[in-house]
């Protein structure tokens, strides 16, 4: 784009010739300035300019005259040639385009004449071809019509095929002709009529109904005298029609003959006779047979007769293109029917029924080889029946396993009848006989209490967890076997991980029958009116209470559990009993010892220990559902059946299964137990959550099952295929029973903590409203523990009952201890209120009394009972009383920090309190 020139800059004047100048002057002249002189000047100026131009031209020519003359002659020569060329072109155009003598008009005339002749020849040829094609079509159509009228359907089909080919290949000029359209319509009509008659003849020649197959080798065409053979009829059918008909026949054969014959008793009848028209026909008829007399082998024979009949009268008449595919298409339905309708439903449910069934399997294998492979030409080489027969042992065992598991599922999920229970006897050797004093030297400071945490092996009772051993092991007499005493090593809480609670139990089923009859039915006695543990005092000698003993230990250590001095040490002595370990740890045998008197009794007696005789056998019972007895009977029956199957050697050795016969059946026994563990807690989850007794009974069921399965595993130790799984099931059931028991207790402990949270830490109990809230919370806990204990007592064995209830009580006491000891300041009025609240729990001691004349066992099963009891005393005691109890070692259950904090909360800051705190900080006297 050019740079625009500013308008203020001067522009170069355009060069102007003479004519332009003159014209410019003429245009500038006006009527006033235009005169003759001015016009004369303009003419003169033009003449001067013309003269000057001529002069310059002449001068220029003269300056180069030879070149000018040469160019002039060249120009004249060009003009001459141009005139000659123009003349020649005009002559040529006249020769070509002259309408009379021109070349182009003559050529066009001759070409037009040739085209007309060519068109006439083409029209004649097309006319001849069309007439010839129409003549052929007419001839074939007449042949088709004549064949139809005479009933010669195969000839009609052939003529129709030829006519259809002529119609398809029709010449183009004839394609849209009206005569061809009429011919097509007539051909379609004849074609449909031919196929209708062929279908009718085929349907009359090959009839398959629900109960009868009719084969007519010759069929008379309707409305004619022509008789056609069945093979020609089938060959003449169109491929689509023939395939549809064969598919229908295969479906009817599969449904009404193959499946029907193999599913139910049926008789086969084959007859041959002449029809009313005089033509031969073959009939195969089915008749139901009596079900009680029919043999499964007869079904194979009936099916063999059907296949032979089909091979003779149907397969031979099929076209070669349909023969082999149709026969092979029957192989799969026959194989499926053999397996699903004959062999699999015939699998017996008892061992004695296996021989005839195995004979049936052998005949089925022969049938497959002879008919499916030999006659029908099955080329799959799979032989499903043979493969199935090779694994018939596994098939039988899998069916039995499904039946067993279905029966087990019914037993497991049936609704419980509370009256259908029984009691199981447990042998408990944890309670020792009265102790005998045996002198043993010991340091005075080490025998302040006479307790030892670790029990020597000479007095430790052999434990077996939940009592899963078959027999009660006799306790060795260590006096008569000194080598056993030397080899015995001390057993600690960690020595026996198999006993999470430390109960040495041996279970025995109490002889008892169901509610139908027998001695000691479970619903005859109320568990609370009559002691379910057999501790009744009415007219019978009661079992002596457990007497305190002290084990023989290598070295006595200080006690870790406080033994309460009755009346604050003023009665001279106190019974000392070791409390059990917390839940989840191994509990040692409850012990008791005599504590030295505070009124001058000799402390040398502390050096005496006891060597108890073998503990007496104590029997306890617990409640178990009849359901587990049914499950045990089922497991035993399965094992017996599996062993019988293994020993029978009834199955052939050539089997595709990698497991020996009987293995799967034996493995169904632990599967029943697995089903119980998986199904019962889920099915009855609501009932187990709502009923504490039902939940504990489920724990008992698992424990009882575990014990019985343990015995069964020992007895069936030679069954390697199932022994390991039985042991695994035993362990799983034991863990389930233990964990269920512990979860129930944990839930109740959490419930107790939730109720006590209403007390809000027992703060401000001096106010009556707050005291009422705390009192209601403590009373609710007491009521809750009693209700739960009432539900557990008839269900659990005595020892586990004490442990379960003791855990709940310990949770309540521990929570209350924690809240009260956390109070920073306890005025005198609040201390009395708190002591009053603590004494409410004294009523729980009655839950741990076995007989009316025996002392309570609460200190054995509630670890915090002594500490809690002293707390109620300390809340109302003086500093002197606290100091005295501390010096006597009665407050060893309290930590020093707890005692210091309690003294600071109870008493004002005085020198006496300071001295007492300093004494407490020095540590417990009994702890050295």
UniProtKB/TrEMBL annotation:
Compositionally biased region (Polar residues): 585-604
Region of interest (Disordered), ranges: 432-552, 581-617
One GO CC term, this protein: cytoplasm
Biased composition (Acidic residues): 451-474, 521-533
Domain ZW10 C-terminal helical: 777-920
Pfam families: ZW10_C2
Comp. bias regions, Basic and acidic residues: 476-494
Gene Ontology biological process terms in this record: endoplasmic reticulum to Golgi vesicle-mediated transport; mitotic spindle assembly checkpoint signaling
Annotated protein name in UniProt: ZW10 C-terminal helical domain-containing protein
Organism: Jaapia argillacea MUCL 33604
